[in-house]
Amino acid sequence: MEVTAYQPGTFSWVDYSAKDLEGAKAFYGKLFDWKLLEEPAPNGRYVMAQLRGKDVAALTPMSENETRMGAPPHWNSYVTVKDVDAAAARVGELGGQVHVPPFDVMQAGRMAVVADPTGAVFCLWQPSMHVGAVLVNEPNTFCWNELYTNDLAAAEGFYTALFGWKSKHATSSDGAKLVELYNGERPAATMMEIQPEWGPMPPTWGVYFAVASCEDTIDRAKTLGGSVGMEPRDIPPGRFAVLEDPQGGFFSVIQLKS
Predict the structure, then answer these.
(1) Which residue, of 37, 50, 86, 221, has the greatest Cβ tally within 10 A?
(2) DSSP string spanning 27-43?
(3) What's the whole-model pTM score?
(4) Does some domain include residue 133?
(5) How far apart are CA 23 and CA 103, in angstroms?
């Protein structure tokens, strides 16, 4: 699906903070058949991932701040807002933290890096020339964002106040508590309790990529040095699995039901 603009309060972009940028390019480029183009960046390298000549995601080296904090390689999720300065200020008022205050990304837009009260980090994006992902919800593009947290109530209160999202409580197929989030009438994201069997895991926003075949993608990831963090299983939207890239970054893939 091609997108020309995102309603405020919508996840619109993802990029990967890599410990080894060349390794990330080799893995994700081959896994998702992305064409990778390096673009000018204010603080280093930024590699745009494209399908059919349209932006779908990006890869970048980990920032000095991320390295200093000991963050592992990870995918970053961006939410479009009307006014990033006002949204970042509101984050602090609601008990979150502003890790990187708002700044201009050349002519692309304006962003900030923030965290919710449970510690999950995400980005705020005020678009200018770069609206976000131009292709979504089709194979080899991102299609969903999900928060894993130790405090569903705190997270729910924060995000509904910050973005005006509506919430609905539910239960996953394996009995975990879920909160479904809606931006107006449209699904925006989900939140799930971190389960004991997942081991030590900080609150984080996870990214889902749509794929043509869950099993084929797993096989390809393994040949590229990746591994399976959670074996494939069926859920209402389709068949999904959690994968780990060679650097230790986690992401999910899902074969959506037609």
Answers:
(1) 221
(2) HHHHHHT-EEEEE--TT
(3) 0.96
(4) no
(5) 28
Question: What gap in Å lies between CA 89 and CA 91, rounded to an integer?
Answer: 5
Domain end point (choices 127, 159, 181): 127
> pLDDT tens digit string along 31-67?
999 999 998 776 678 999 999 999 999 999 998 878 8
Q: What is the mean pLDDT of each run of 10 residues along the chain (258 residues)?
A: 96 97 98 93 86 97 83 95 98 97 94 97 97 98 97 97 96 84 97 88 96 98 97 94 97 95
Phi, psi of 239 (to 5 degrees): -110, 125
Tokens 């900080």 belong to: 202
CA dist., res. 129 & res. 127, Å (int): 6
The side-by-side arrangement of strands in the sheet containing 109-115 is: 35-39, 46-51, 54-61, 11-18, 74-80, 121-127, 109-115, 97-105
Tokens of 193: 């309790």
